[in-house]
Write the structure tokens for this entry.
Amino acid sequence: MDINIFTVFILAIFVGNEIISKVPPTLHTPLMSGSNAISGIAVVGAIIATKVGGGIGSWMGLIAVIFATVNVVGGFMVTDRMLKMFKRR
Amino acid sequence: MEFTNIFYVLASVLFILGIKKLSHPKTARNGNMISFIGMMIAIIATLIAKHEYEIDFQTIAIGIIIGTIIGAVFAIKVEMTQMPQMVAIFNGFGGAASALVAAAEFLKTGEITTFTLGTIVLSIFVGTLTFTGSFIAFGKLQGFISGQPIVFPGQQIFNGLMAMMLIFVGVYVVQSPSDMNYFYAVIIISAIMGITLTIPIGGADMPVVISLLNSYSGVAAAATGFVLMNNGLIIAGALVGASGLILTNIMCKGMNRSLANVIFGAVGLVQESTGDGSKKQITIKSYSTEEAAMIFDAAEKVIIVPGYGLAVAQAQHAIREVAEILESKGKKVLYAIHPVAGRMPGHMNVLLAEANIPYEQLKDLDEINPEFEDCDVALVLGANDVVNPAARHDTSSPIYGMPILDVDKSRTVIINKRTMNTGFAGIQNELFGFDNSIMVFGDAKDMLQQLLKDLKEL
């Protein structure tokens, strides 16, 4: 087993902690919907899953692709819609 | 195969840069676009790297088309007041997608290592729990399920037993993966736990729950990343997990509650008055909007404190108009936003931004509290517990210790409420009886429109 992958995981948590604590409260809702979109990265796994598990597996892959795409598309679009509203005087 | 990893690293860098640009409203929209480009790179790199015998392009195309349509409709149609519901559903979808990918991997023929089996169990557990928990949270926010905490005798013991069973069954799946019954048991137990851990949490605590489920959806993605040994999923999942946890913390602090207390406390269940006779009789002064307008006219600095009642009354535009006329008379106007003013982190800011209120005027708790000292009028709209001074001194109060907006320090406090009913915490607010407090009763929108008229006539 590869220790590098844990290194990546731990470092990502620290980086995440660092940059996210700098997001002002005003933008916490877009942060949440935006991170929803990013967690749609599962779509990459879903793409890989479409042929691994045989018949049932590919059905699960299809549903996973749908769910993750909803997250990606809906998440980025609604975040953009919100951020458009934040205007200066 | 190695070259895809380079693209996953690139995608991760873009996610990090994208979130970094969320640190200011000016750059935030660009940041979101950068994250989106990162996502596209990750998806396209995966599609190019895999051969036709490895992935099913037809299935992928159908899935992406259906998902895009559903996602776009959600994003365009959703009302800003419904954002918490939408985020709840999306958390659920994210968790489910991760769990499904892990489950498909489990069904793969051939040897699976113990490590991979362990991460599959973890991913299915967190993903399924996020899925069912999110739908309960959605139901509560949408009003399909009672916002009251739902408890049954022995709930804690039941949850404890379920957790123990899950560990037992999970270990069994890792040891003998050929027995499908244990695999199904993991899914069922996780689904039940998602429900039983969410139903006892009251409606007022939903901001914490959504933040927590947001974090879980990231953890599920990261766990699936370990299943597939995929850096892209691990990094993105870790970022989302960290983000959700930070927001959970902020929400807990805003309510002065520990996370354990929110999850297991079932607060708000018994709403009977404490009945110790300590309910002091308070004398209030009730003014008309005309009289209130005269107070505003004499003021130089006004701070508006919007609560969720303002959004429910759809009075955001009315308050902007009032603020604009005050500014045209040369007065300084600011908005004080409590961390739990809305139904999710930052919700109130979005609702006010939607009504074209400039973000420079929106101040958070730490920024605004010193401003009340030299403030002439604090206008409290549909907020109650977050301005209750009892949180500062009354150790017997259920909200004691909660950070509040110090509106009572301003020269005059004008409070708009429908009736004298108590807030979420079910307690009387002594602020209403203070010498410098004035009540203006009525629906927030009607009251503001009347106030606007009176201000114009002055």
In short: Chain A touches chain B through 79 residues (CB under 8 Å).
